[in-house]
Write a structure and sequence with these properties.
It is a single chain. The chain is α+β, with helices and mostly antiparallel strands and about 210 residues long. Helices cover about 35% and strands about 30% of the residues. It has helices spanning about 130-135, 140-210, and strands at about 5, 15-20, 30-35, 40-50, 55-65, 70-75, 80-85, 90-100, 115-120. It has a five-stranded mixed beta sheet, with no helix packed on it. A hairpin with a 6-residue loop joins strand 5 (about 55-65) and strand 6.
Length: about 210
């Protein structure tokens, strides 16, 4: 089954809009949008589906773990704004996969298309600052400062993640280099020992044949 993926590589590009063709139930291929998310991070995925008669659009959100854990699912998305909220358990790609199935008796046709709008809110982007301002009686300037504070926290967490990832890669490289060095040394020792054994064996062989003294 074909698996189409759009990777959101730039953090500033987190909203995607695309057309999803209607397919029969037997031939429906998932159309997936992915985004990298750190562990223990709050995620809100907002989805809006355009009108589409005789079509049933479903969404399943999974992670990229070995078992592809299901984080959220809904069949038959309506035209109202849908919000999927969850907390990631480990760092990795989060996949939002759509299927658009035609009703029984209908065949794929260019007329049967649905427009999909999907937006990823991650970390501080999931905070409802209007609600927060109302609860904590914050002034507009204080709200903007809170936004900047949360944004800086996200940047620092990303930098720490990158630093930890770089350290892991460096440790892996150093460990690999040490193993290669030990293997090379062992190979040289084996080759020298094998050469000496061949010399000793050939010398004994020639002496038995009385070819040398």
């Amino acid at each position: 089954m074909m698996f189409i993926v759009i990777a959101l590589l730039l953090s500033s590009v987190q909203a995607v809009k695309f057309e999803l063709a209607g397919q029969t139930a037997d031939d429906a291929d998932p159309y997936c949008v992915s985004h990298y998310v750190d562990d223990e991070t709050q995620v809100v995925i907002k989805v809006r589906v355009g009108p589409g008669p005789h079509q049933k659009t479903s969404l399943e959100i999974t992670d990229d773990s070995e078992h592809q854990n299901q984080l959220w699912r809904k069949d038959g998305l309506s035209e109202d704004l849908q919000r999927a909220t969850f907390l990631t358990k480990h760092a990795g790609d989060v996949f939002a996969c759509f299927t658009n199935v035609l009703a029984d008796g209908y065949q794929p046709d260019p007329r049967y298309m649905r427009t999909i709008d999907i937006d990823f809110d991650i970390g501080s982007e999931t905070i409802d600052y209007a609600k927060l301002a109302e609860q904590e009686k914050l002034k507009p300037m204080e709200v903007e400062l809170r936004k900047l504070e949360d944004m800086v926290k996200d940047i620092l967490e990303n930098m720490e993640h990158l630093q930890a990832r770089e350290e892991r890669m460096r440790n892996t490289n150093e460990s690999t280099n040490e193993r290669v060095k030990y293997f090379s040394t062992l190979t040289m020792v084996v080759l020298v020992a094998l050469g000496l054994w061949q010399i000793f064996y050939l010398k004994r062989f020639f002496r038995k044949k009385r070819l040398i003294d």
